[in-house]
Write a structure and sequence with these properties.
Layout: H1 5-12, H2 16-30, H3 33-44, H4 46-70, H5 72-86, H6 89-100, H7 106-132, H8 139-159, H9 172-188, H10 192-195, E1 212-214, E2 220-223, E3 229-232
Antiparallel strand pairs: 1-2, 2-3
Helix pairs in contact: 2-5, 3-4, 3-6, 4-5, 4-6, 4-8, 6-7
GO cellular component, one term: membrane
Subcellular location: Membrane
Keywords: Membrane, Transmembrane, Transmembrane helix
């Protein structure tokens, strides 16, 4: 919209003030849904919330050319709707990062998401500028990115997953390892030695230089650095379907 707004204003007679209102109206919607999106993502899973948001912003993107032709009010409503849809994206993504990524790798995951968002702008802005001056005109910007959003939404619905236990694209061992890492973080805090264990190890060893004793109930007692015992059952002895409560 930042690229197309001048052409839209010229075609439909929107002055500078009205163009500013159209641009700003996106944020009226965007500030409403982030907290709601995060709450719903934690309750229902990030996949469903992100998919819903993507469908909403895709529909409003495709409707933007028609709304702009219908008048200022409709253009503003469309932009608010776009903001409402996009507002849930980052909360849903961060919820899934918490479910998918072991604590020792979450900073890199968040940084990657942020970098990719800026990469999208690097690609989208020159592409939009080229489309504005092309024979297809400014409307093609919204048709192109709306279509891409629709295709992405379909792919996400098929392949996306809120957490490892609901994914069909990873093995049971991979899912178990992710859950084991989360379990270790819960027990040992930010013990980097425990969090960085190789993926093939399913039971912790030498955590905090502690002593481990296995009893007949398959519980492991770890003597922590402050001398207090910690009892837990290794995830390798628990069926995968029973570990979803850890997410």
């Amino acid at each position: 919209m930042a690229v197309a707004i001048v052409a839209i204003g010229t075609e439909f007679g929107y002055n500078k003030s009205q163009q500013g209102v159209i641009l700003a109206s996106f944020f009226f919607g965007y500030i409403i849904t982030p907290i709601l999106g995060g709450t719903l993502s934690d309750r229902y899973g990030g996949k469903a919330i992100l998919a819903t948001g993507a469908v909403v912003w895709t529909v409003f993107t495709l409707c933007t050319p028609l709304a702009a032709a219908m008048g200022l009010t409709w253009a503003v409503i469309t932009r608010i709707g776009l903001g409402l849809g996009e507002g849930v994206a980052y909360p849903a993504i961060h919820s899934m990062i918490g479910a998918w990524i072991p604590p020792c790798e979450r900073s890199k995951a968040v940084a990657s998401v942020t970098a990719c968002a800026y990469l999208g702008s690097v690609i989208a802005l020159p592409t939009s500028s080229a489309l504005v001056v092309s024979s297809w005109g400014w409307r093609s910007i919204f048709w192109l990115f709306g279509t891409l959003g629709l295709l992405w939404s379909i792919a996400w619905q098929i392949f996306g997953a809120s957490n490892p236990s609901s994914s069909t694209l990873i093995s049971e061992n991979e899912a178990r390892w992710i859950l084991q890492q989360k379990r270790l973080d819960h027990i040992q805090g930010q013990d980097q030695e425990a969090l960085n264990r190789p993926a093939g190890i399913t039971e912790p060893t030498d955590i905090n230089s502690g002593e481990q004793l296995e009893d007949e109930n398959e519980q492991i007692r770890t003597i922590s650095s402050n001398g207090e015992p910690i009892l837990y059952r290794p995830l390798s002895s628990i069926p995968l379907e029973q570990t979803t409560s850890l997410l």
